[in-house]
Amino acid sequence: MIARLLAPFALFLSAAAPAQQQSLPTEQPVVAERVAAEVHPALWKVADADTTIYLFGTIHLLPEGLDWFRGPLAEAFALSDELVTEIPEVDAETSQAVLLKRGMLPAGQSLRDQFDPKQRALFERTLASYELPLNAFDRFKPWYAAVVLATLPLQRKGYSLAHGVETDLAARNTALGRPRIGLETLDYQLGLFDSFPATVQRRYLFEVIAALPDLDKEVTQMVSAWHEGDAAKLASLMNAEEDDPAMIEALLTKRNRDWAKWIAARLDRPGTVFLAVGAGHLGGTGSVQDQLDRLGVKSERVQ
């Protein structure tokens, strides 16, 4: 569950990480050795007489060297008139402003002061294990500490936003001079986490801390399934141990419903669209495709 909940919100981290966060030494990434030789991440399309919308599930952080942009996927991107992602391109100044609004505690409050002695000791041991200052997150809300901490074991394995799918697609789209729009705003995304009660945020933070030792292995399995185009396996991995229906509804299912409505409405205008969102939204029960089907809109797997 931790990796699935992290995935939709990894996009803002490069611009919004706390100033105290240090660059972590990376180990040799192993995911590229574990994927099948034939590369074909899953791709779907929704179409009517004059509109085609390609649906591609992304991985926000990847290790260097994964060769995924090829075949029908590359052809679909080349044919498209615009790129649609979860959020539009956001500059660093705007990201910082949104983070200050959504991610920081009120003046005079400290994150570590919210913990009981055992929780505080565990939290501080976790920060020390990543060579972070003990006050690195004192000014931040629990949700933000959780999301950033969840990226740290991935960084150590060589995962990076710089190698992620959105970064690659955005660069290609810019080179082609095509428009890019977002389904949501950064403020909306961060506001989802910010809307959870402090008790829920703290519980999520300590669930993340408990999961950190095995998180890179879990994500490596997900990336392998994504790289092989095994949407069913990917959905199964991402749905494992889901135990908070309210959080899943807010962060995933409701957003999938909203995005399906956007896709259905977009069919009323001609053109070809390449829509790229986190892979967790395009697999399993309640996925975007499920929501489209409930609206009477059929999707077709094309890779």
Task: Describe the structure in brief.
By secondary structure, the chain is α/β, with parallel strands linked by helices.
Explain what the structure shows.
The protein has 303 residues and is of the alpha/beta class. Helices cover 50% and strands 10% of the residues. The chain has 13 helices and 6 strands. It has helices at 2-6, 13-16, 31-34, 71-79, 92-103, 117-129, 142-156, 165-175, 186-194, 198-227, 231-239, 245-266, 288-294; strands spanning 43-47, 51-58, 82-85, 180-182, 271-278, 300-301. It has a 6-stranded mixed β-sheet, covered by helices on one side. α7 (142-156) packs parallel to α10 (198-227), α10 (198-227) runs antiparallel to α11 and α12 (245-266) packs across α13. The two termini are 26 Å apart. The model is unreliable at 14-23 and 28-37 (pLDDT under 50).
